[in-house]
Design brief:
The protein is mainly alpha-helical and 163 residues long. Helix content is 42%, strand content 6%. It has 6 helices and 2 strands. Helix 1 runs parallel beside helix 4 and helix 4 (83-105) packs antiparallel against helix 5. The longest helix is centred in the middle third of the chain and has 23 residues, at 83-105.
Length: 163
């Protein structure tokens, strides 16, 4: 499909011109964002007082991707509704989800990550127990009589008046 050309002089095209005309242009910027996240460094001070750069990869996120593409999340969502851009953005979203899940599940310092993932990403924390023998439930009132049994029958009385 040919890229759509935006013409300023054409009054029929309203709104802001698109930031990306092809999925390839967008993919190039998306790949740049993921590389920046992986190459992120932080400065730390050693015991000797030296400042050292250490590798500190950031976990990419959807809002961060939108920011790197110079748009907001809503604009990125609108791009994902275009047939040409759908697959490019879906792959980026899936990679973000995979990296987030991986960091939460494999974190040694954050045991809550596993619970967060299970509750928010459709996983279940459910245990099923199979009963081999059926359970019999007997209902009784507070006096110990079985349901449907009268107090007279319980005590052995026939219900006739005593002579």
């Amino acid at each position: 499909m040919k890229p759509i050309k935006y013409e300023k002089e054409n009054p029929t095209k309203l709104g802001r011109p698109p930031k990306f005309f092809t999925p390839e242009q967008m993919k190039k910027e998306i790949d740049k964002y993921f590389k920046e996240c992986q190459d992120n460094t932080s400065q730390v001070v050693t015991k000797e007082g030296l400042i050292v750069d250490i590798k500190d990869p950031k976990i990419p996120c959807y809002a961060g991707l939108a920011y790197a593409l110079d748009m907001d999340r809503h604009q990125l969502w609108n791009y994902s509704n275009k047939d040409d851009f759908y697959l490019t953005i879906k792959k980026a979203r899936d990679l973000i989800t995979q990296m987030l899940e991986d960091s939460l599940i494999n974190s040694k310092n954050n045991p809550v990550g596993k619970i967060f993932i299970s509750k928010n990403y459709g996983y279940t924390d459910k245990q099923e127990i199979e009963m081999i023998k059926p359970l019999e439930i007997v209902l009784s009132d507070y006096r110990g009589a079985k349901k449907g049994e009268k107090d007279d029958q319980k005590e052995g009385k026939t219900g006739k008046a005593a002579k």
